[in-house]
Amino acid sequence: MVADQNDRGGTQFRCGHRQEPETGERGHDGDEKNIAHPTDARLYERARRQLVALAAEAGLTLRQNYNRLAPRLARQVGRYAHARQFKRMRKALKKLKGYTGRVLRDIRRQLDDIPAGALRERVLDMLVLIGGLLQQGPKSSGKIYALHEPQVDCISKGKARQRYEFGTKVSITTTIDDGFVLGTRSFPGNPYDGHTLAPALEQVAILTGETPELAVVDRGYRGHGVTTTRVLISGMRRGLTPTLARLLRRRSAIEPEIGHMKTDGRLARCPLKGLIGDAIFAVLCGCGHNIRKILAHLRELWLLILLLASCSRKINWRRALENCPA
């Protein structure tokens, strides 16, 4: 959101969405996690390698670890897909999945040989995680897209260049005129945009100590259900005064702010682990964005001071020449 102090002393906000999170504007975007693009072949092969490594650490003897066959087959799946030989690709993928399942069942049979402790807990957690990976289908809910980040969500972008992002939805609230960030909040589970407006406004009220009077959002927030703050949605025509119409036109100003947070503030990809890492990273990116804007204003002020000082010295020099005796 974007916040702005108007002449009446009220706080105004704008809202929007970014697809890791204004008074005036609010935006959402997907804060991508630091994971590779998920494919079945890559996930099955990584799962098998992690199971083999855990078995070696626990001192288990596997019937077969497929260290030679599985990597070769995983590469072959990609070649078949590139050549559009999908029947062969599905056959190879099924075989690769079978390799991972065999290693999983082999370790499960030898669980009693692992003494109680941290290692046994790690093995059990990995067995549960990879078991869910092997059971999920193309349309399963709560799919696993990365073994080291199982909470990652698939966020549909609807863009030709990048149809999907894998991460967590982040809400960003900024001021309308200046673009200072008032709040950033992560929303795991890929909720509907309208359902994130109330928590975002609540965060702004907590951080600023002032309840927003006006929020300007895009059409993705229809059905938000917020009653404590007046919400303007892009495309509204009825009941708009010239002042409100001007503020509504400023809604899109949050988009370049989000772009700068992605490129300059590294919001495009979250390197911190887990849901807590998503929340911390979003807040840190908002703080960094505000600091960069403050430094930019201070830089302009310092240049103005230097310019005035330089002009003053030139004027004094001319006066000194005029007053110099012949």
Automatic annotation (TrEMBL):
It comes from the Bacteria. Residues 17-36 have a biased composition (Basic and acidic residues). Residues 1-36 are annotated as: Disordered. InterPro entries: Transpos_IS5-like. This is Transposase, IS5 family. It comes from Paracoccus saliphilus.
